[in-house]
Amino acid sequence: MTRVAPSAMATEIGVQGLAIPEEHGGSGFSFAELAVVVEEAVGGFTKALWEAIAIVLAVNAAALTGEKDHRTLIRAAHYARANRPDLHWVIAGEGRLRDSLAAEIHRLGLADRVHLIGHVDRVDALIAAADVFVLTSKREGLGSVVLNALALGRPVVATDAGGIPEILPPEVLVPTGSAEALSQKVTAALDHPTPVPFPPGFSAAAMAQGVLDVYRALL
After folding, report:
1. Structural domain of residue 14, as residue ranges?
2. Looking at the structure, do residues 86 and 154 belong to the same domain, yes or no?
3. Distance from the CA of 174 to the CA of which of 71, 106, 139, 157 falls in 20 to 30 A?
């Protein structure tokens, strides 16, 4: 396995070391170093890499703001730890709540399991490497990032906020703010991974046709 040199960014974001066992290609490779790969979105950041180092990955990509409710995700990670000690939660995004979320992660003793990695240019590369994509919003419009995850064939667990129930079936939804239910759904998605079919009504062709129908109705 190619060793990736740590960068100032990896140190700055406070990702903890997490030594990878030698039987999984360790030799000092750390999660902090993997953060560099995420930052640069290089070709080496692949599902195969995660499998090689035996990490199970839940990904969230959203601005660090109150309506995205990352505190529920962090509490879900706390609940899930006993049942899935191999599970890591990666949060991609920046925002004004970063410091308070980092403090909550440390308060719950999750610094080695929940990782704030900041902005990622090619977030689809990160989502594609996930075992499950998680969205915990209190308020949401369409939830376009969920559509990205579905298009990439990833299992998804999300809250039932805003327009998300128009995209996802009830069996992968949890009530907003329900950390324990979220933990259970994520664990179930890992135990029995079943990607949700992409909703045909949200395909590019269907949405373009919808716009054309509106214009024609106005003529």
Report:
1. 1-46
2. yes
3. 106
Digit-coded pLDDT (tens) for 166-186: 999 999 999 999 999 999 999
Determine the length of the chain. Answer: 219
Find residue 173's DSSP bridge partners: 158
Which tokens is 95 given?
Answer: 């925002």
Q: What SS3 class is residue 172?
A: helix
Q: What is the pLDDT of residues 1-32, one digit of tens each?
A: 232 333 333 333 333 333 333 333 332 334 44
Q: Which of 116, 146, 120 is nearest to 133 (CA)?
A: 146
Average pLDDT, the chain: 77
- Output phi, psi for 9, to 5 deg: -60, -45
Three-state secondary structure of 111-128: CCCEEEEECCCCHHHHHH
**From residue 96, how far is each of 67, 144, 206 by CA, in Å?**
12, 22, 36
Q: Are residues 117 and 168 in the same domain?
A: yes
> Using one digit for the tens of pLDDT, what is the confidence trace for 198-216?
877 665 555 556 566 676 7
Task: Supply the CATH number for residue 172's domain.
Answer: 3.40.50.2000
